[in-house]
Design brief:
This protein is of the alpha+beta class. About 30% of the residues lie in helices and about 20% in strands. It has 9 helices and 16 strands. The strands form 7 sheets. It has a 3-stranded antiparallel sheet with strand order 1-12-6, with no helix packed on it. It is globular. It starts with a helix and ends in a 17-residue tail after the last strand.
């Protein structure tokens, strides 16, 4: 076996963080060396609406640095995202001003405005520029059934986790939270929801922030001006926001990398590290379940069954190992199950010898 495979979990986590630190530094160096080339690529990749004269998206500011900042900082949901309303879930493109949304902090609140941000590739053969690509948060990436379906949001959009507003770009882990390449799409349309005050709403049942800043990049910005007048520079955020950027991420990754020896991690670092471990656990479980369906089928699968569902050291990765799901998949594919029955030290039960059920 390789050294990596035999390494304890903290050392593997440290190695992952060091590798990601190196990747961030390398991308920063490349951006410094070839800024002009990157600019040309960004400008050529979109069908600018000012060139076609269809919308006012680009009319107000044709400056190159402003365009780049917009791509990196805008916070939106991809078309098709389901939002929880007082009347049930609705796709974001079907919402209207005045619809009532349950919020995490402010109770039921009406929608004040919905910003719309369309993108279209000038050349369908080209890939999308990374700055505009949404992040895919897979089902159950944050917790059991949270989100309850794949969620697509822009990189700067914050999720509300353990009392913090965390831009999802911090949480990309290559397993359950990844950049969505949107290769099959020639158009991307994003939406965001403005309430009277900044708050947290539920998108695919995951807690996500509402719009903080109304800006003129929305194609329907004129509607907001007519209804409410010039917007404030920025609403006060409803919870602590961790920000984002290369320097912040490098520092965060460094704290996580040295944590097996000196743990100086902040809350953001712990959240990201735990979600990465959860992503690895879910990936391994998915691979195992998929292997059980292969032919010829394996003779048996060995599974530690924690019948008490207690949160002790009966799992290798962060998050539930879900042995019952693995046993159910095994039985559905006529694969034998060798179950090791385990009880956490100190746990109490009156039915330790009850049977193991796969459902």
């Amino acid at each position: 076996m390789s050294t990596l495979r035999n390494s304890p979990t903290p050392l593997r986590s440290s190695r992952r963080n060091l590798i990601k630190m190196s990747a961030i530094l390398a991308s920063a160096i490349i951006a410094k060396i070839a800024p002009a080339t990157a600019d040309d690529f960004r400008r050529d990749d979109f069908d600018r609406e000012r060139d076609r004269g269809r919308h006012g998206w680009w009319d107000r500011d044709g400056k190159r640095d402003s365009d780049q900042r917009r791509h990196k900082d805008f916070q939106c949901f991809l078309k098709g995202t389901r939002i929880r309303t007082a009347e049930g879930e609705k796709k974001i493109e079907d919402l209207a001003v005045g619809d009532l949304l349950p919020t995490v902090l402010g109770g039921i609140r009406p929608i004040q405005w919905i910003g719309r941000y369309p993108f279209k590739k000038s050349d369908p053969a080209k890939a999308w520029v990374r700055d505009v690509l949404p992040v895919r948060v897979a089902r159950s990436a944050l917790g059991p059934n949270i989100p309850n379906a794949d969620l697509y949001i822009t990189k700067a959009h914050a999720l509300f986790i353990d009392g913090l507003l965390v831009p999802v770009c911090h949480l990309i882990n290559g397993t359950t939270i990844t950049l969505y390449d949107a290769g099959e799409l020639d158009e991307l349309e994003f939406f965001h929801i403005k309430l009277e005050l900044h708050d947290v709403i539920y998108a695919e049942e995951a807690p996500c922030e509402t719009l903080v800043t109304v800006d003129e990049n929305a194609v329907n910005f004129a509607e907001y001006i007519r209804q409410y007048g010039p917007p404030m520079i920025e609403d006060a955020r409803c919870a602590p926001w961790v920000g984002f950027g290369r320097r912040l991420e490098i520092k965060s990754r460094f704290r996580s990398a040295i944590s097996p020896w000196i743990d100086r991690r902040q809350k953001l670092d712990v959240i990201r590290d735990e979600l990465e471990e959860r992503g690895i656990a879910l990936l391994h479980q998915a691979k195992l379940v998929s292997l059980l369906g292969e032919r010829p089928a394996p003779a048996a699968v060995q599974c530690i069954a924690n019948l008490l569902d207690s949160p002790g050291a009966l799992k290798f990765f962060h998050g539930s190992a879900k042995p019952r799901a693995i046993m159910a998949a095994a039985r559905a594919n006529e694969v034998g199950v060798m179950a090791i029955r385990a009880v956490q030290a100190g746990a109490l039960t009156s039915a330790i010898d009850r049977g193991i059920r796969g459902g």
